[in-house]
Amino acid sequence: MKHILIMDDEIEVGNFFRHLLEEKGLQVSVATNKNDFSTLISEITFDLALIDLKLPDSNGIELLKLLKNSQQTCKAIIMTGYSTVKTAVEALKNGANDYIEKPFDDLDQLEKTLDKHLNIEPIANQEETNQLASKLGFIIGQNKEMNELAKLAEKIAKKNINILIEGETGTGKEVLANFIHNVSLRYNQPFIRINCGAIPETLLESELFGHEKGAFTGAVKLKKGIFEIANNGTLFLDEIGEASLGIQVQLLRVLETGEYYRVGGESVRKTNTRIIAATNRDLAKSVEEKTFREDLLYRLDVVKLNLPPLRKRREDLELYLKFFLKKVNASHLSFSQECLDIMRNYEWPGNVRELFNIVKRAVALMDEDESIITPTFLPEKILHNSGQQPELQYSEDDLESYLSNWTRHILTMWDRNKDIQLDDVLYSVKELEKQVGRSFVLKSLKNHVGDRKKTADSLKITPRQLKYLLNEKGKV
């Protein structure tokens, strides 16, 4: 028989759950204070604990930690009011399996939640989740931070709360939002994405809320807005930090009341759309700069998910490469070990999006009879920044050797019987300019026995320019 622990200082709550659960053939113990709770978990092994978040002599987070230290396999559900939902999400990060909101108005949903955590098979469910994530391109892999993120995302997906995703450009915020939508109860409803920074304010208002016929010049017919189309589904607002203050006011109204007006309309319309917003900005800083509304941030930031940059999940680089090769119908290709080593040393400023572009580029350059992608097919910037650019060995004292290698490298690109990206050529030209200038600076500095003022005078540049050149073009 499964044993359930109820921790709530309200006796009525304990009696309610005792009646509800004992009818299901479950054994129930009730604690009303921290001492009772500590005693019970030291004497009895529980399958599930329901813990109130706000208590007179303690708090749910503290008791959750006590439970997990004593009984790691016991599942935990936090009970909370709406005003403390954000704290309940913090409990999920500390090991809680779920949370339920007081008062318990929807008893059917409450029973479904309890039954799920009493009967669920974690391993099978996790495998199913991982398969769905992979299918959507949400690579979880071995990275600890990504695994914690995925677990939290899955837990909150089934809650009707708004989510804010933060992360650098190209980290995969839309992919994460799509994953959340697909593991939520709204999975069979629309998932719609809109970039708040890519559409002018006047058009964005019409896109979001729709417009009536004749509302403005060019409005020749009625148009439904995204909030109407995505009703009961999920709306992904990408680059929310780029939205104008006017749009922010209207978004706030929708988030607070679920109500909006079409442009040019007079009747109030209702929507049950879930909002997932994303940004690569620091919105707290934007609030300080008066470019983002604090009340809107409060409404969006119920749950915040931070996507780590690709450089912090290098251990899963091969998983991304295999996924992208499959995506471009090139599963028969593979990257050489040398290629992998070079890419692991690269910082990936463009993150996952940049990696995908590099995969597409390499596949496009490959001949039909080739199956291994070698460093030859990587862009110049990766070869250079990784410190592994075999074609251009450079010695400070041997400008002639460098020019010879550079010329041979350019001619090789010229003679290659396949398309060459102009960016690669121009990058090599910039490298030539940099290295030649550096050689002349170092030669002059050597002639003047390290005297920077005399070196600058001889080169007809200022000491400040010399300092810049030395800093930019290498160490002396």
From TrEMBL:
Protein name (record): Sigma-54-dependent Fis family transcriptional regulator
Domain Response regulatory, first and last residues per copy? 3-117
Annotated GO biological process: phosphorelay signal transduction system; regulation of DNA-templated transcription
Which keywords appear in this protein's UniProt record, sorted alphabetically? ATP-binding, DNA-binding, Nucleotide-binding, Phosphoprotein, Transcription, Transcription regulation
User: What GO molecular function terms would the record report?
Assistant: ATP binding; DNA binding
Entry's Pfam families? AAA_lid_14, Response_reg, Sigma54_activat
Q: Quick check: keyword DNA-binding in the entry?
A: yes
Which PANTHER family is this protein grouped with?
A: SIGMA L-DEPENDENT TRANSCRIPTIONAL REGULATOR YPLP-RELATED (PTHR32071:SF119), TRANSCRIPTIONAL REGULATORY PROTEIN (PTHR32071)
Q: What is the lineage of its organism?
A: Bacteria, Bacillati, Bacillota, Bacilli, Bacillales
Stored PROSITE patterns:
RESPONSE_REGULATORY (PS50110), SIGMA54_INTERACT_1 (PS00675), SIGMA54_INTERACT_2 (PS00676), SIGMA54_INTERACT_3 (PS00688), SIGMA54_INTERACT_4 (PS50045)
Q: Where is the Sigma-54 factor interaction domain?
A: 139-364
Q: Specify the superkingdom.
A: Bacteria
Q: Which residues carry this modification: 4-aspartylphosphate?
A: D52
Give the Gene3D superfamilies listed for this entry: 1.10.8.60, 3.40.50.2300, P-loop containing nucleotide triphosphate hydrolases (3.40.50.300)
